[in-house]
Amino acid sequence: MTESDSRDVSLHYQSPALDAHLVDYVVTLPTFRRPQQLIRTLESLSGQIFKERFCVVVMENDTENLQGARAAKTYLEDSLLTGAIVLAHNRGNCHAYNAGWHMAMETFPQSKAIAVIDDDELADPHWLHHLVETQKTTGAHFVGAPQIPVFENTALHDLATHPVFAPPYSETGPVPILYSSGNVLIQREVLEAMPEPFLDPAFNFIGGGDSDFYSRARTRGFTFAWCLQAPVFEDIPERRTTSAWVVARARREGAISALIEKRRRPGPAGHARTLAKSLAMLAAAPLRSLRLGLKSRSAATGLYYVHVATGRLLAEFGHINEQYRNPEIN
């Protein structure tokens, strides 16, 4: 972490009973203006059935109102769950993650790994146990797991199979790479090896900082696994089920993939390869979408590949939707 970054992170609260040298695992939990959902997430962490010692680090990214920090402090004061609350003064998803991960590495020197959960998710009671067991079994440096959508409008449950909401893998075991930081276990040696800031702040408001981090980690030889048995349950408000939002998310996924490829292949030759791939994906998208539409019996679902390819091509000309710029309406 740079000197500037360190000045923009401060400790808000730490449980008096927390012995930093006795912590085996740290659960990091970023939050922004969702205090009630944050408490539900903390409650799900308090209910973990897990034999090893763990604590939670809450990263408050709204340092003007401090709704999450205050709610978390009240909860930790009255709970057997121990942890700390840090303030990430710079706005943005990546800043919040970086603050928590840096604090975890600095404060808990004996910790083996950090786990990540978001403030709109609830952990299964065996969540942390299964993540850790899968890591021990596979030897992977990263272990991801499903984020199961829980729709505010229960009539829309069929959307769970749409690629925007569906998990990328369906079996436990080694996988090529992960795509989301909303449910993941990261071994300490990864963060010791990767340069800070871990997540590039350039992705703060478009998303994809986690995908970029995974891509860079893979080039260093770090490995990935999937754990089907460690789900978290993610609240999906009705505004995230509109056609406009789903299309924007699919296009954003395409844009992020193009942006990451450009970073991995700098220079005119690399950019030309990325553009060629984007054009090839756009050409193949109608047939892929037709197949998906027939399989899912949904034209809206089928069009996913068209939207991803369109997003990639738009990114070639600098058009990337900042869906996280206004999180209250995202």
Q: How much helicity do the residues have? A: 40-55%
Distance between the termini: 29 Å
Query: Looking at CATH, which topology of the largest domain would you report?
Result: Spore Coat Polysaccharide Biosynthesis Protein SpsA, Chain A
Summarize the main sheet. Answer: 9 strands, mixed
The count of strands amounts to 12
Percent strand: 15-25%
* SS summary, helix count: 11
- Shape, principal axes of CA atoms: globular
Could you spell the SSE succession in H and E letters?
A: HEEHEHEHEEHEEEEHHEEHHHH
Order of strands, main sheet, comes to: 1-4-3-2-5-10-7-11-9
Our count of domains comes out at 2
Given as residue ranges, the uncertain stretches (5+ residues, pLDDT < 50) are 1-6
Output the radius of gyration: 20 Å
Structural class: alpha/beta
The CATH class of the largest domain is identified as: Alpha Beta
Structure description:
The structure is a single chain. The chain is of the alpha/beta class. The protein has two domains: 3-238, Spore Coat Polysaccharide Biosynthesis Protein SpsA, Chain A (Alpha-Beta Complex), CATH 3.90.550.10; 243-316. It has eleven helices and twelve strands. The chain has helices at 3-7, 35-46, 67-77, 93-107, 127-138, 188-193, 209-219, 243-264, 267-296, 299-302, 304-316; strands at 9-14, 25-31, 54-60, 83-88, 113-117, 121-123, 142-144, 147-151, 173-175, 183-187, 224-226, 232-236. The chain has a nine-stranded mixed β-sheet, sandwiched between helices. A three-stranded mixed β-sheet has the order 6-12-8. Helix 3 links the parallel strand 3 (54-60) and strand 4 (83-88). Helix 7 (209-219) packs parallel to helix 8, helix 8 packs across helix 11 (304-316) and helix 9 (267-296) runs antiparallel to helix 11 (304-316). The two termini are 29 Å apart. The model is unreliable at 1-6 (pLDDT under 50).
